[in-house]
Each structure stands twice: as C-alpha cells, then as structure tokens.
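Q: What would this chain look like folded?
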Amino acid sequence: MERIVVIDFGGQYNQLIARRVRELGVYSELLPRDASESRIRGEGLSGIILTGGPDSVYDPEAKRCPGYIFEMGVPVLGICYGMQYIVHIFGGTIEAGHREYADTPIEMGDHPLLQGMDAGYVWMNHNDSVVKLPAGFAAIAKTAHCIAAYANDEKRLYGIQFHAEVAHTPKGILVFENFLRNICRCQCTYRPENLAEELIDQIRRQVGPHGRVLGALSGGVDSTVAAALVHRAIGERLSCVFVDHGLLRQNEAEEVTAFYREQLGLNLTAVDAKARFLGKLAGVSEPEQKRKIIGTEFVRVFEEETRKLKTEEDWYLLQGTIYPDVIESGTDASAKIKSHHNVGGLPKDMGFAGLVEPLRMLFKDEVRALGESIGIPHDLVWRQPFPGPGLAVRVLGDITEEKLEILRQSDAILRQEIDRAGLKESIWQYFTVFTGVRSVGVMGDQRTYDYAIGVRAVTSTDAMTVEWAELPYPVLRRISSRIIAEVPHVNRVVYDITSKPPGTIEWE
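A: My prediction, written as structure tokens:
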C-alpha cells in the first residue's frame, strides 16, 4: 500500500495534512520526529511531508528530524517550518521579520507542484522567511516579502511557506494532489472501506487462537464498527459490555442494547452503573477531573465483568479509539487539547492483557465508510457522535440529576427538530449544553430566574476543524420556542457560533 509519512513539528494544522493526503487516496501517518527508522521507512513509503511548527530554525532548541530522511530517495515536501528547515540544513538563509498572517497575495510559477494553482491569495502564518535558497533550489512562487515555494527536482526536495492544508487557501488541495501524483507518482488507490480484511487479520494475530476480548460499547459508530470487526475475527470469544453510567441521552440505553442484541447478534451484558458513576462525580466540577473519573470507572466496570466470566484465557479490552482521539491527546511535538478517557486516561493497572483498537489510525468519515462496507445499517453509521464521558462534559460545573434531566429533554427537542428539517446528515454534530448560567426572564406575566441552554451545531469532515452550522432561522426559532415551553426551569436559549479552532466541539 502506498504510504506518506507526515513528520510532526508541532504545528496546529498538522493533523489536517495527514487528512488531506488520505482524502486524495494515499494512506498517511502523522509520526513524531523520533519515530524509529524502520517505522518511517516502512512498506510502501512514497514520500515524506515535514509539517509546520512554532520554532525558529536558528533556535538551539528547535525541533529537528533525522538526516537520513533526505537520503532515502523519496520526495520530501516541507510546509512552513518544514520548508524553512530544509533550506536551513542545506545552507540557505532564513531571517526574522516580514511576518505574514492570514490571506496573502502570491505569484505562482510554472512547476508540477503548483499545477492548477492560480495567482491570488494563500493562507500564511509565519514569523521567519526564506530570503536565500541553497544551491540547486529554485523559487517557484513568491509574495511581496518572501519566497513562498521552491523546488529542487534533482534532490526531490520541495517547500511551500503557505498552508495549503487549510480551507482558507483556495485550491490548496491541488498542492497535495500534485505532490502525490506528479512528484511521488502515487496511484492514489487507498480506500478505507477496503481495510476490513486487513484489520480482521490484525485482530486475529494480536488476540491469538485462545485470547478473549471484552468489548466496551457506547452505542456510537466507533465502538460499534470496532466490535463488528472483532466479532468477525474471533466470533464468540468477544463479549460485549454496555455501561449505563447515567450520563446518556433520552432513551439511549434501551435503543442501543436492543440494536446490539437483535441486529448485530452480539453477546451483550448491560450494566446499570448510574448510581456508581454519579456518586463518584458528586460535587466535581473541573472538566479534566470528570473525564479521569469516568475513564477510571469504565475500566473498573470492565475488569469486574471480566472476572464474572471466570475463564483462564488472556483478556483484551476493545476500544473504539480513532485517530483524532490520539492526535488531540498530544504528542511530543504538539500540545494536548483535551484528554480522552481511552487515550492516556486509562489506569495503569487495568488488569487486561492489552488493548484492541482496530480504528486507532482512522478518521471519523473513514470509520463510517468502513462500517457501511461491512453491513452496519446506515442510520447507525450516521448516528450522532457522542463523547465517551457522555453528558458529563455537556453539564458545566457539578452534575446533578436535575441538570441531566433538563439537558436530556432539551437535547431530545433539538434532535427532533433537526430531523424534522431534514438536516441530520448534513450537520456533523448537534447537541445542547447545560451552561449553568441563570438569567432573568418573563414567562406567564411573571418574573423568572432560570437556566440558559446552549445549542451547538457544527459542520466538519474529520472533527479536527469545524465551522458552526448556519441553521435556518425558522429551525432555530422552533428549537428555542420548544425548549423554553417544554423544558422546566429554562427561560433562555443561546446559539454557539464558535469555530474550532479557537473553540472545540464540546464545551468541556
């Protein structure tokens, strides 16, 4: 399989680079700078991309990568810091100043890397600039203040100062397509829906002929697809557990358990742990502490269920971890955005032989494509994403039964109105938030002092960046009117119009 390695220098858009490559039909991995040579070289290596980052190449503490990367004979594309890094190590000159941010006018030259790109604007975000190229390098694009792109066809080294991976660069995707097809000579045949048999084989090798797996099911597409793959790999040696932690949406526990048992035919144990989880969370308001408590309790429940099975075989824990979970939980080069209970938030003493995470390297839309390819019903595949900590991260502050019930009712109304408007598959994610804010209102000719509910709806392809959804005003009006009229103790509804970045999808 063709493969592009993306070396992570800590830039905020690095995950998008890997995503764009996969969109174009080539498998990609975002790897740390200190990844082993065998992992970088790996089977099918077709090219390498060096990402942006916050450092200056002249800083003694600036991030570096192994020199052998430039001696492997595969094309290397540097973006922003990656571009400057190549220039620096090959003897060119980078200077501070002439900073460029946001939309920047550019002149494009004639080169296969820029085929189809028009002179106009690109998205820039840099403090340092390339002012002199090394011998053998030629400028192929420029702005008023810097060399914006270069090529060394003999050494197969290329660089762009602008960020082609973001939507703000018109036709930026063409840079990646040109790099893959014109420079790396990739056939671009990667499709996530074709991965099923390979992933099933990997599961069999990991678990072995006698190992057993405890499937941690949430009802979401990630854990469902993961469980379906494991079930195909090892059959009855998969036992699934669904935990009702008291933080689910309205009627969710009943709907999910029925689906798993009746449609997927899984061996499922449903655990009522509402009192246990809510007791642990009582009085806790700090978001990261909530996540850690929930993650720990999840694993403890699974350990207990495993012991009840009373078998001597090695047991593995199945999780629906996907690539954005891994990336957002931080690397040596990039910052942690938030912790995920299934990435680094697990207790060290889990009591399992290991983790089975067949979707760990896939983005959400890839998981959906894979799920449909193995026969999971469309409605389930396109079910709204739901965070592992459930409604705990949608109740700001401490958690009580009253707040959860207000949130469940308001969320149900939102989902009904989105469905009624025919928008449920065009919007990536939508939910309500218990803000904890109380405000003055007038209802029934009387003064009220009740809660404000937040509504969040976003569009995205991969959950790494999102835009707020421009819901039609009549839909927003119905949502607001119904929540205020039907949900006790709510007198105000607000709509969140924050993109990611700077925000995240969830509020906590």
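Residues 394-495 form a domain with the GMP Synthetase; Chain A, domain 3 fold (CATH 3.30.300.10).
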